[in-house]
Amino acid sequence: MARLPLEDNFNDVINKTQRGLKISDEDLAKRAEVTVEDLAAVKGGKPLFAVIRRVARHLHLGPDALEILAKKEWYPEQPNFPTGFAAFNTPFEDMTVNSYLAWDSRSKIGAAFDTGANCDAMLDTINAEKIKIQYLFITHTHDDHIADLKKLAEGTKAEVWASEKEPVDYPGARTFKENAHFHIGPIAIKTLFTWGHSPGMTTYFITGLSWPLAIVGDSIFSSSMGGSPTHYADQLRNNKEKILTLPNDTVLACGHGPLTTLGQEKRHNPFFTR
């Protein structure tokens, strides 16, 4: 997969945090001791670093990480999976979205995670590698993540699974509770409910590949996280309690943007570095 841009710019992080915390521009400007005009400029994408740092502190964001994001000085080092993992990126309206495969290279049995906007490249890989897809797991049911569900489900004959808190509308689809376990040969998959961005957002924690792997959907992005105007605190808490407690070398396969690792995000993600 080609080098993908980060999902969010510094002003996206500020805007989604302010919206989630329900703080008005006037209140935030007053707390941060900046002018409403300078705040508006920063929210519009102007890199006024002194203002960014002041605003970050009052939004409980890491000032250093947010400034580095504004300066475009960091990009996550990409982990290498020699086999058993593939990532796909497809355009959806004005953005792109990711989907993933994980499989046991010996038995050639695997699982798909979301469909992206178009699953043709994923099906090509499945056929080329001669993989039998046993499970099709859904992180959440936003349109961009399940746009090609019918084609992928019919093309693989896989069992379709999603959270009991956010069932997917597909004939025969099944639901799981939190901490459900699935196995594909030596590969173990555990479900973690990291809801907030959506009611049943699920992270799939996978062991048995070259690295521990977490398919996180829109729970976390490199240098950001999925927003929620109504359940922001829940999203942040679930991320901290259920994703940030995984091993530091866990690879995070995000719903948008590049792969990253938990250790890198602990150092560079403004939501987790303050």
Largest sheet: 6 strands, mixed
General form: elongated
- The figure for the number of domains is 2
The neighbouring-strand order within the major sheet is 1-2-3-4-5-6
Oligomer: single chain
Describe the structure.
The chain is α/β, with parallel strands linked by helices. It has 2 domains: 10-71, Orthogonal Bundle (434 Repressor (Amino-terminal Domain)); 85-268, 4-Layer Sandwich (Metallo-beta-lactamase, Chain A), CATH 3.60.15.10. It has 10 helices and 14 strands. It has helices at residues 10-21, 25-32, 36-43, 49-58, 63-71, 120-129, 143-146, 149-156, 232-243, 262-268; strands at residues 85-92, 95-104, 109-113, 132-137, 159-163, 174-176, 181-184, 187-193, 202-207, 213-217, 220-221, 224-225, 251-254, 260-261. Strands 1-2-3-4-5-6 form a 6-stranded mixed β-sheet, with helices on one face. Helix 4 (49-58) runs antiparallel to helix 5. It is elongated. The model has no long low-confidence stretch (mean pLDDT 97).
